[in-house]
């Protein structure tokens, strides 16, 4: 299935104008008094929240969008204001702003419009749109299972007119004790079509080092099957980097292929795999007295075959990764396997959100490696060198994992001695790294006024419900029995129309009353059920043909009986009605054969449909008793919600100078959730599948798009203090009692919903929607535009073989620092001490790190 893309357009009530007529309190007043549109402009909640548009250019992004959207709106500056144009322009603006970028899996838009600057003398009024959108943060929401460690300059610093074929340089600077101050640039050139569709390069240099990487890349994605995507590339890498008493140089040409799976299982396990064929030259510049035969060749040809497999699994704010790599290497001139390298790398990351926007982040990683060789020809450049920079097992892959001991108290490549007078570099290693970071100061990405808006949260829940149905529809397309069910509906349509034609032929001549009553039972509305048997069945079939999302729902209505609920399908009722028509037809001397011949086809179609429905849909697997229990409990909410509405109607409206400032907002929140809950109850009673509406009412989609009943209960709780401060203690207690009853019913509904058997298609759709819930939770409760966090670092490492009583000790790194986070881009600076320093080693090393955290895992 294609990745789920969700966009939300939230409409808020239009604030009334502050003036009286001729400016008016309503939209119609401006239209009636022939006002013209003054200015049409936008305000962004980002710009008002924190002045960071110079970094993310969010203001510029929206202004550019608005410049293109504005001519498309029905409202025009200088032209007459009309209510119709105002409403249609709001809708059009939202639709155009909702256009998603390629590969964008999630998009959130919040849009309100208002009228300002009423000028009764000039008869003009301004239209102002207030916008919040995740567009400026879209690089964070790239497709899962794709590369997530690159930041696009096209997002951070938009280049006017930049397109798919532009070369976009990304300059950067860095520092470490080994290389000193270095600088460089990355660039990417993309095109479409062809085996190779992307060029990437990365060059950097300093007074003591130089690196360069160039790659020609092609890729392909797959909607179905085990494989999610594949990528292949031809690349060249050059590196000249010093270490303590050593300089490592290499030039390598690589041919590579990589791939990844679609998420597997309920936890979304994703597998990675790849291989690389490499060849080139490796050189180690060492002092003359350190080069020995046992050290292996310091200057040699290089050839290798590498393969790896890895996987990642996410659970809420926790993520696990593990990888294994195997390398068969050539160390001399002969084409043979001189050494074998094994590397294992694993990591665990978690974010603990005890307080909103102040996460405690824990990152733990562990790596180990081993080199074996019968010939002893292991190039020095292929040995293990430790320090504060990771070394990827295969360069250029979408799945990067460490293949060297990481210890931040040593500069790059400087943990390299296994003993005095022994070879440089190790043939075995392990390292464990722990990093803790606690946010102490932040500016939230979503303004608090928006994060607390109940109308938005309610609409988010409704939008997710819609997207879940869209996801289920996509999975239905892949279900082998879905097309067969559509064919059954077409057959049923033919049989019912033939039956209808037979009845019309009989009605064409005068018939006795009992015959007409029998015919009318097929076509006229039944006073008890309010159903027109054949016309409504044909309408259901037509609706199924028009919208694939309702195919199974209509099929259930037409063919599925629920005896425990005393619910009879349309086909069963038609067959019974045919049987009941036999006697009056026979009494009037009419043949019954034309009616009887429809029974067998109807029953065959029904049996086929009933067989297919449970294979591709949830409805056929729902237990009738569960459905009835949930429906009954939902209906028990009706008098409670009516009681809440009554209590609210007895409260005085907010005053302009109300001493309790939060009274108005809390009253509005309870009112909105009460209306949403009442609407949810109505929807459950109208829906063919009670479970869907009940889930929206009682379960919800996480902390942000929570259950409607949860929002109602919480809003009543938050309303208690303002009510008591205004002297309405009795009303506060009454609402609290109502909330207690709602909570009890919600718990009962939740418990029974857990017992409902969920089929495969429902599980897949829920898994996709769960991602959306996690993203919303991160955006509203955790994501910060800017944050500062103290950092603690602990490292343990060892390289071997363990042959020296001094050098075989565990080496430690203990350090601290500070992290500056810009959304998910983390800049770490600190210092790590080397507490077990050996002669010639440094006291420690400065730590400078730049990383992108995967907030949306």
Q: How would you describe what is shown here?
A:
There is one protein chain. The protein has 857 residues and is an alpha+beta fold. Helix content is 35%, strand content 29%. It has 21 helices and 23 strands. The strands form three sheets. The chain has a 17-stranded antiparallel β-sheet that branches. Strand 9 (227-243) and strand 10 form a beta hairpin. 37% of the residues are buried.
Helices and strands, with pairings:
Elements: E1 6-11, H1 27-32, E2 36-44, H2 45-49, H3 53-56, H4 58-69, H5 83-97, E3 106-119, E4 124-133, H6 153-156, E5 170-176, E6 180-190, E7 198-205, E8 210-221, E9 227-243, E10 246-261, E11 270-285, E12 299-315, E13 318-330, E14 339-352, E15 360-372, E16 428-438, E17 441-444, H7 448-451, H8 454-478, H9 482-507, H10 513-523, H11 533-546, H12 551-559, H13 570-587, H14 593-596, H15 599-616, H16 624-649, H17 663-686, H18 690-698, E18 700-701, E19 705-706, H19 708-725, H20 729-755, H21 760-781, E20 784-800, E21 811-822, E22 825-833, E23 844-852
Parallel strand pairs: 1-3, 2-4
Antiparallel strand pairs: 3-4, 5-6, 6-7, 7-8, 8-9, 9-10, 10-11, 11-12, 12-13, 13-14, 14-15, 15-16, 16-20, 17-20, 18-19, 20-21, 21-22, 22-23
Number of strands: 23
- Rounded to the nearest angstrom, the distance between the terminal CA atoms is 19 Å
The tally of helices reads 21
Which percent range describes the beta-strand content?
A: 25-35%
Apparent shape? globular
Rg, rounded, reads: 34 Å
Unreliable stretches = 1-19, 47-57, 138-165, 291-295
Residue share in helix: 25-40%
Mean pLDDT: 80
**Biggest sheet architecture:** 17 strands, antiparallel
Q: Determine the structural class based on helices, strands and strand pairing.
A: alpha+beta
């Amino acid at each position: 299935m294609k990745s789920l893309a969700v966009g939300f357009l939230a409409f808020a009530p239009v604030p009334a104008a502050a003036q009286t007529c001729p400016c008016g309190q309503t939209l119609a007043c401006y239209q009636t008094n022939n006002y013209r549109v003054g200015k049409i402009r936008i305000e962004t909640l980002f710009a008002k929240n924190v002045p960071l548009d110079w970094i993310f250019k969010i203001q510029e992004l929206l202004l550019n969008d608005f410049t293109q959207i504005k001519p498309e709106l029905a409202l025009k500056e200088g032209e007459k204001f009309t209510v119709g144009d105002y409403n249609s322009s709001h809708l059009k603006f939202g639709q155009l702003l909702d256009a998603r970028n390629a590969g964008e899996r999630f998009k959130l838009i919040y849009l309100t419009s208002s009228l300002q600057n009423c000028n009764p003398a000039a008869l003009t009024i301004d239209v102002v749109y207030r916008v919040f959108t995740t567009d400026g943060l879209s690089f964070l929401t790239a497709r899962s299972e794709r590369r997530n460690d690159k930041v696009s300059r096209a997002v951070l610093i938009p280049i006017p007119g930049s397109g798919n074929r532009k070369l976009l340089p990304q300059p950067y600077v860095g520092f470490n004790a080994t290389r000193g101050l270095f600088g460089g640039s990355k660039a990417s050139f993309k095109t479409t079509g062809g085996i190779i569709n992307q060029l990437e390069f990365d060059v950097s240099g300093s007074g003591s080092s130089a690196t360069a990487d160039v790659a020609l890349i092609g890729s392909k994605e797959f909607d179905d099957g085990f494989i999610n995507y594949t990528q292949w590339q031809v690349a060249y890498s050059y590196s000249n980097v010093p270490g303590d008493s050593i300089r490592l140089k290499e030039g390598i040409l690589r041919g590579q292929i990589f791939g990844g799976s679609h998420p597997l299982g309920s936890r979304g396990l994703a597998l990675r795999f790849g291989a690389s064929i490499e060849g080139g030259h490796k050189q180690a510049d060492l002092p003359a007295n350190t080069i020995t035969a046992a050290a292996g060749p310091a200057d040699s040809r290089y050839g290798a075959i590498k393969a790896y497999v890895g996987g990642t699994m996410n659970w809420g704010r926790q993520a696990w990764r593990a990888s294994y790599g195997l390398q068969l290497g050539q160390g001399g001139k002969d084409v043979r396997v001189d050494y074998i390298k094994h590397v294992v790398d694993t990591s665990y990351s978690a974010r603990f959100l005890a307080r909103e926007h102040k996460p405690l982040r824990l990152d733990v990683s562990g790596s180990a490696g081993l080199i074996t060789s019968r010939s002893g020809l292991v190039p020095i450049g292929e040995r293990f060198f430790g320090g504060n920079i990771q070394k990827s097992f295969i360069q250029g892959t979408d799945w990067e994992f460490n293949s060297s001991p990481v210890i931040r108290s040593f500069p790059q490549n400087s943990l390299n001695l296994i003993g005095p007078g022994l070879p440089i570099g190790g043939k075995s290693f392990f390292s464990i790294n722990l990093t803790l970071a606690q946010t102490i100061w932040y500016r939230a990405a979503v303004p608090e006024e928006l994060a607390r808006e109940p109308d938005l949260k309610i609409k988010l829940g409704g939008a997710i419900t819609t997207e879940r149905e869209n996801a289920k529809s996509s999975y239905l397309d892949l279900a082998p029995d879905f097309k067969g069910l559509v064919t059954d509906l077409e057959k049923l349509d033919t049989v019912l129309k033939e039956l209808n034609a037979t009845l019309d032929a009989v009605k064409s001549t005068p018939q006795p009353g009992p015959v007409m009553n029998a015919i009318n039972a097929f076509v006229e509305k039944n006073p008890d059920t309010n159903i027109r048997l054949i016309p409504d069945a044909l309408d259901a079939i037509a609706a199924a043909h028009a919208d694939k999302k309702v195919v199974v729902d209509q099929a259930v209505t037409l063919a599925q009986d629920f005896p425990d609920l005393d619910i009879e399908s349309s086909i069963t009722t038609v067959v019974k009605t045919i049987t009941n028509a036999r006697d009056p037809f026979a009494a009037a001397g009419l043949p019954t054969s034309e009616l009887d011949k429809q029974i067998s086809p109807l029953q065959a179609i029904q049996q086929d449909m009933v067989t297919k429905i449970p294979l591709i849909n949830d409805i056929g697997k729902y237990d009738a008793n569960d459905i009835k229990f949930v429906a009954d409990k939902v209906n028990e909410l009706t008098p409670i919600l009516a009681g809440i509405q009554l209590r609210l109607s007895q409260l005085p409206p907010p005053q302009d100078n109300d001493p309790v400032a939060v009274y108005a907002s809390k009253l509005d929140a309870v009112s909105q959730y009460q209306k949403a809950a009442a609407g949810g109850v109505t929807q459950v009673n109208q829906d063919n599948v009670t479970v869907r509406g009940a889930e929206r009412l009682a379960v919800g989609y996480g902390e942000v798009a929570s259950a409607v009943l949860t929002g109602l209960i919480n809003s009543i709780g938050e309303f208690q203090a303002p009510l008591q401060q205004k002297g309405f203690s009795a009303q506060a207690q009454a609402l609290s009692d109502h909330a207690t009853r709602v909570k009890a019913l919600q718990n009962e509904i939740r418990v029974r919903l857990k017992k409902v058997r969920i089929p495969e298609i429902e599980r897949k759709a829920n898994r996709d929607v769960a991602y959306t819930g996690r993203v919303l939770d991160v955006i509203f409760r955790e994501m910060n535009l800017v944050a500062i966090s103290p950092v603690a670092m602990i490292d343990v490492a060892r390289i071997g073989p363990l042959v020296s009583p001094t050098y075989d000790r565990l080496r430690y790194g203990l350090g601290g620092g500070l992290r500056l986070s810009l959304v998910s881009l983390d800049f770490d600076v600190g210092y790590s001490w080397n507490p077990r320093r050996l002669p010639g080693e440094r006291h420690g090393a400065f730590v400078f790190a730049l990383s992108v955290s995967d907030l949306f895992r």
